[in-house]
Amino acid sequence: MSDAEHQIAIEQQVVDKVYGRLEVMRAQATELKEEGHSRATSGPLTGLVERDAMVLRAAARMSDLDRQEEGIVFGRLDFDDGDTYRIGRLGVRDEDRQPLVVDWRAPGAAPFYRATPGEPLGVDRRRVIVCEGPKVVGLDDEVLSEKDIDGVVGEGALLRSLTRKRDEHMRDIVTTIQREQDEAIRAPAHGVTLITGGPGTGKTQVALHRAAYLLYTDRGKFSDGRVLVVGPSTVFTEYIGRVLPGLGEDNVHLRAIGELFEGVTATRRDPAHVARTKGDLRMVRVLTDLAWDTPPNAPDHLRTLKADDLAKARLEIRKRCEAAGVKPNGGRTIAAKVLSEMLDGREVPDAFLNAWWPPLTPQDVLPAQNGEWTVDDVPLLDELAEILGKPEKPKTTVPEWKLRELSSGARLAETFVVSLSLNDGWQLFAPGLATPIAVSGQFIDSNDYWAAQRWAAAIILREGHKVTGWNDGFDPYGEEGYVPVLAEPLPVAEADEPVEDVYLHVILDEAQDLSPMECRMIARHAAHASMTIVGDLGQATHALAVESWPELIQRLGKREVRTLDLPTGYRVPQVIADFAARALAPEIEPTRSFRPGGTLEIRQVDDLAAAIAQESGAVVAPDHLAASFNAIPVSQVKGLEYDRVVLVEPADIVAAEPRGMNRLYVALTRAVAELVILHTKPLPANLTR
Ligand SMILES: Nc1ncnc2c1ncn2[C@@H]1O[C@H](COP(=O)(O)OP(=O)(O)OP(=O)(O)O)[C@@H](O)[C@H]1O
């Protein structure tokens, strides 16, 4: 057996043990779930002990990680004091609670990413274990001490990772996170963290791993969709969509900017000059006026009042509402009063008010042009929701389902049990009735305790009670368990208050591109949130993009920032990066690239279509030419990457918009290996410098 084979066999033994242990935990989880059911039916409740909680939590993540082709164990650290441990996508302990694998996000795993020969942090050897599922197929060692270390095999895990076969989705980098990236991932959650860096420096990867890290460090706070990641387009969110599930986390909301207004999914952008108008802060004024305007099809007279009188009435109503801080949708009572005064005290018929002062949705005020909202409309719709205020609520009907205990009489404090396994558990309390989920159509992740806790609170609130505490069975990780709560009756009015979703951390990718109106929309979503802002000023293409980071922070209504810069590129080979840097604004430092190899070819041709037909790879063309060449429009490639890029007619890309040179820079930095430039017109002057 060669040295490498011997070392692989050693690691395989450990990996086998980990998978064996996971099987045991899986079986225990199933048992616990069944036991949980019988505990709830036979009451009184006893809390799940910590061990059970650990098993249940691991089982929930395991089902996500089962699909992970690269396996659960990926690293090993040997320390100078003789200590050794393995690092994985999930923490696993043996039957005696001794760690078999440490979760990559645990503080103990940080040296795996931070140790360097200059600063080894007590690490003698860092080993990357390459697995295909449960099978160890390779090892890469890096020795960080001066000592002789036995059985050192392989080298260059990062290089191996960079040159492996890629597919159309981004894959996580959990085995090869670099030191400066790790520092950004593990930066404190509070306040605003700004992560800057050129193209391909791993900003998006860092943002996603940071989301997973935040969930690990404070699951109680951040789980149940309390972390929002915002990307520039749906193509982009689709491209990065598998990274978090691959890390065992599916509890993060991932949205394109065109999806931030509930109920609308916009994918197309407006032309630059339209986007400039829609992105301008002056739109707030325009939208406010629209919101107070007479709705189309409103009646134009009421008894003795003619159109002119009604117009005057509207101005008066707006004045009184604004003075009282009332929004248009809350103004019906004031409207009725003003009209009645103008009619010498006569009452205004409901039918008239319904048509003349109806509750409005943002979509009523800003209907889609040509049947489609654009990405640039989305912040306007969101702004309108704020301006209009909530429509007056229809009278709440008594839900057809009832908690049996709740309807059994008034008490000061009472214990309820809400089952997470939804239908099953629900039937214990409301036999024969549909679950609240079935009734309300809300989506609740049945794997998540925190969802259940809030769900329980919402149900109990709707029943006119307030949760005052989580009872003796409190179990911080009780997936699929039961949620016993203490609750007391509430005054009825409070019970009507809706329970709102609030984000507690918002991660913004490609943040350099946000217009002032987009910033206002995000600021509303992030009103209670700490933030991670990720971007590159060199890639700013929006006509109203910021010139500096402090300007963006100010637009977002935040102040204190910690800034981390990622200096090394991992996507673009140096020859391509050097060429792309010619399109970069002179005040911005070009990125050093770590990636080896790469080719660059520039060809002037007579017939673009014929030249493209001879090419392979991703063809990227100016937007107006994209359809005719069956190419990807250049406005869609932000954040993406391809092995071989065929870039068509750079001069047209530059000429198409005010920040066309930045757009070209984005396009030039998408290639992982080969860049071919085809042009009929002269190249932009910068490129021929
Ligand atoms: N530590 C790493 N190990 C392996 N691959 C890495 C590492 N860091 C980044 N990469 C790879 O480099 C490429 C670029 O990463 P990413 O898209 O996160 O960069 P970015 O800074 O967001 O780029 P852009 O600004 O162009 O959108 C990806 O293929 C990513 O997987």
UniProtKB/TrEMBL annotation:
It comes from the Bacteria. GO terms for cellular component: cytosol. InterPro entries: (+)RNA_virus_helicase_core_dom, DNA_helicase_UvrD/REP, P-loop_NTPase, UvrD-like_ATP-bd. Keywords: ATP-binding, Helicase, Hydrolase, Nucleotide-binding. GO terms for biological process: recombinational repair. Pfam families: UvrD-helicase, Viral_helicase1. ATP binds at residues 197-204. Residues 176-573 form the UvrD-like helicase ATP-binding domain. One of its GO terms (molecular function) is 3'-5' DNA helicase activity. PANTHER family: DNA 3'-5' HELICASE, UVRD / RECB / PCRA DNA HELICASE FAMILY MEMBER. This is Helicase. The lineage of its organism: Bacteria, Bacillati, Actinomycetota, Actinomycetes, Micromonosporales.
